[in-house]
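Let's inspect a concrete specimen:
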Amino acid sequence: MAKRGEKTVWVRCSGTPKERVATMLLGDNDGNKYPPFHRIDPILLLWDDFSGHWTQNVLDYAASINVVLEKAPPRATSVSQPADAAWSFPLKASLRNLWHTEMQTQITRPRATGTKFKRKAPDRIKICGWISMTWDSLMAQLEKLSLLEGPPVDESSDFDSSEAIVEEATV
């Protein structure tokens, strides 16, 4: 694991057949996307009131990595969830497709008679390339699906979640 401020972040391998990778990807509601990055400045993280988020272990760890946790106002979390649904699904589907293509390529590759097939996991460079390529193509896919316009707004509601979030964050 990398220490704060390092330019290269290595993955800790557990020795299990399933490995996971996590990266921070950022895009805004205007359709701008930003390259993956590593920050050391304080970060504000808005969470809903789910009790599992607010355990003492979570609070202590967040403080240790310079993350300030704030509760989002009630009824405001649905405002931020469309981005998760609009981005996460196509991102994961594209990565899964690249993984399946990689496996199909390995399976169909010619090998000597009597040689058993042995699956080879993609290396970090290939996985990072997949993530970068998928992230680069994500906004074009979302524009094509008209998902960058945002969720429908209920004009009859008198609750303005964006004002509530700003008020809560500035108090």
